[in-house]
Each structure stands twice: as C-alpha cells, then as structure tokens.
UniProtKB/TrEMBL annotation:
Residues 26-168 form the MOSC domain. Gene3D superfamilies: PK beta-barrel domain-like. InterPro entries: Benzoxazolinone_Detox_Enz, MoCF_Sase_C, Pyrv_Knase-like_insert_dom_sf, Tri_helical_YiiM-like. It comes from Erythrobacter ramosus. This is MOSC domain-containing protein.
Amino acid sequence: MTLWTVEAVCTGTARPFNGAELSAITKRPREGLVQVLEEGLAPDEQADRSVHGGPEMALHLYPLNHHAWWRGIIGDHPALDEPGGFGSNLAVTGLTEDLVHIGDRFRLGTALIEVSQPRQPRQPCWKIEHRFGHKGMVAQIVKTGRCGWYFRVIETGEVAAGDSLERVAIGAADWSVSRVFRALVAGKATAEELAQLADLGALTPRLRSKAATRRG
C-alpha cells in the first residue's frame, strides 16, 4: 500500500502542564489548509526545543492504530479519543512503524516530507505518563516499539484533513522505524548494526552520532 488518508492535521500551543512546566503535547485538529514549513506546521509550538521540533523533527506521526491498543493497557482516557492525543501532528490509520523506513518520502498534500527518526519516549518520558495519568507507559513503548516517528520537510506546501499521504519513494529498505527504534532506543543493536546506522545518511545527525558513540 502506498496511499493513506490524513484524518486530521493537529497543532498545539505550549501551555502549563505540570506546575511550572510547559508542554504542547496536546494537539488539536485544524480546519482548512495548514502550511507545512521547514520546521513544521504553522502555527505549531514545542515547549522544549532541545528535544522536539526543528528541521529534523518537523512533523510527528503517532499511528491511530495504537490508540485502541492503549485502551487495553490503561483503559479509557479522553485523550485516546483525540487524533493528536500523543502529540501527533498527523492522524493516520494503517501506517505503523514496521511499514515505514528511514528516508521514505511521502507527498503530504502539496508538501514533500521524509522519515527522519523514531520518536524517543525519553524525550522527556514523564510527559506522556503525566498526560495520561498512568505510569509504565514509557516502558510499554520501549517494549513494544509503539513509538511513532518524525519527518523532515523536503518541499514546503499545504495540507488539510482528508488529503492523501502518498509514499513516493522508499528510503533505507533494511531500516524500518521499528528496527531503528529496537536498535538505538531499546538498546538491542549489534556492532554491525551500529556501524550501519552511523553511516545512514537519512537518519537524523543526533541518532547517527549516538550510533557512532556506542560503536566506539
């Protein structure tokens, strides 16, 4: 399958989240056309730019398929009814971490985007668990690989709910988001895999550096 439907386009603003802490993890659906710029949707905010946002993490997609799975783990929660409940910018069903690869390119409305990295649940871990009021979610993400992923923007454009997300090119066919997550986040990489990841040009520089450091 190469074509999916964007069920919602979601953005958020940084708001008080836990005392003095701010977070923009709560993303709400937008109506009409939304600009897709080099650093993401306009407007969309990230409270901590050191671990979210920027050209290498411009758009976040957390598969809608996972929401039903989480209900079986934590029970009903209002955020599981929201397309941007996990901080996702794009609500899509049927596209999961094992089906996309680092460097895959997709036509999103009139924009062109590229898969850059898995989302790392430790960036920062407590925000997901605070949002849902349930401890142990990060451990479940690491265990199951239900992490979501980021895109960089190759060509700017516009997108609206109901538009297509069409894969137009396969990137590193041996490196699905699931495999990269398992190797670098779950810590199960072999020395050979670390060497390959350190040289994987479409992977974000931060994770390439992490692979190179662990390789030694």
